[in-house]
Specification:
about 90 residues, mainly beta, two-stranded antiparallel ribbon, 1 helix, MJ0042 family finger-like domain-containing protein, DUF6510
Length: about 90
Amino acid sequence: MVGSDPPGPVRVVDGNALAGMLAGALAVDATSLPLTCGHCGARFVLAQTVVEREPASALVRCRSCTHTLLTLAEEPDGLVVRMGTMELRFPR
């Protein structure tokens, strides 16, 4: 849990250390995920966004300012989710 560790030196480890933290986070109904727009600060759940949908992709926009929040693309090897400069790949 963030903030529960006693003060001390930061441990630098590889990404495997995130497995437990992400396991529960990725096993939820995504439409109920709370979001905050980095552009205007509006808060809402994913289900309340504006989505421009095509057969193999989606562009997710803020309902308040229309700023692009994320994009999703179905590719042959899985789903790609892009948020800003970050790209997450969920293999099939």
